[in-house]
From TrEMBL:
Documented EC number(s): 3.1.1.45
InterPro entries, per the entry: AB_hydrolase_fold, Dienelactn_hydro, Dienelactone_hydrolase-like
Name of the protein in its database record: Carboxymethylenebutenolidase
Lineage start: Bacteria, Pseudomonadati, Pseudomonadota, Alphaproteobacteria, Caulobacterales
Enzyme class: hydrolase
PANTHER family: ALPHA_BETA-HYDROLASES SUPERFAMILY PROTEIN, CARBOXYMETHYLENEBUTENOLIDASE-RELATED
Start and end residues of each Dienelactone hydrolase domain: 14-229
Length: 231
């Protein structure tokens, strides 16, 4: 079952896609978009999380630039649009909007008070920053781009963070990965998994670098993580 939620902030209102489980009470997970907006991939992730027993909420984080972005990774024109949005995106404002989404999630009927977050690509960076800057109960980052610029924020981390890193990520070169690992691998709240030979977005079903086996492995780890952290 899905619905649209309107989230109000001092800067304006934006929408979020919500998928609900059959359970009357469940933890919530904020699903943080890639650079393609709240598209079918993100909605399918929400629906999948709902089937696993979570209230899944995917906010439209591009609303300050252009509300309602819903594009794919299947054409050159869409990639061009996606990178234009990425370059225009204000990361700090995005984290503020995620914080507003978390607050709204905690008040939603059927949410038991616990809220996690999972993000992909741009959303992987935002999931990391959500873990360090908000009151989220747990966060998962898939192949986050630009995390190496923010590793110093890990000292503010008070809740568990799971990170999935693609070894051959074209957007996170080896030197960036080394910075991330050196800074974060011994942090007591952080669990990191490296996927050897995988490129960026290996878990995006239908994407050019999708790998079913490693996507299933990462998603299984994420599910176990959330079941424990949001219990």
């Amino acid at each position: 079952m899905s619905e649209t939620l309107t989230i109000n902030t001092p800067d304006g209102a934006f929408s979020a896609y919500v998928a609900r489980p059959k359970a009357a009470s469940a933890p919530a997970i904020v699903v943080i978009q890639e650079i393609f907006g709240v598209n079918k991939v993100m909605r399918d992730i929400c629906d999948g999380l709902a089937a696993q027993g979570f209230v899944a909420i995917c906010p439209d984080l591009f609303w300050r630039i252009e509300p309602g972005i819903d594009i794919t990774d299947q054409s050159e024109a869409e990639w061009k649009k996606a990178f234009e949005l990425f370059n225009a995106f204000d990361v700090d404002a995005g984290v503020t909007d995620i914080a507003a989404t978390i607050a709204a999630a905690r008040k939603l009927d059927g949410v038991n008070g616990k809220v996690g977050a999972v993000g992909y690509c741009l959303g992987g960076l935002l999931a990391f920053l959500t873990a360090t800057r908000t009151d989220i109960d747990a966060a998962v980052s898939y192949y986050g781009v630009g995390i190496e610029k923010h590793v110093g924020e890990a000292e503010k981390l008070n809740h568990p963070l799971l990170m999935h890193i693609a070894e051959k990520d074209q957007f996170v070169p080896p030197e960036a990965q080394q910075l991330i690992l050196s800074a974060l691998k011994d942090h007591p709240q952080i669990e990191i998994h490296i996927y050897e030979g995988r490129d960026h977005a290996f878990a995006r079903e239908g994407g050019a670098h999708y790998d079913a086996a490693d996507a299933a492995k990462a998603n299984g780890r994420s599910l176990t993580f959330f079941q424990q952290a949001l219990a």
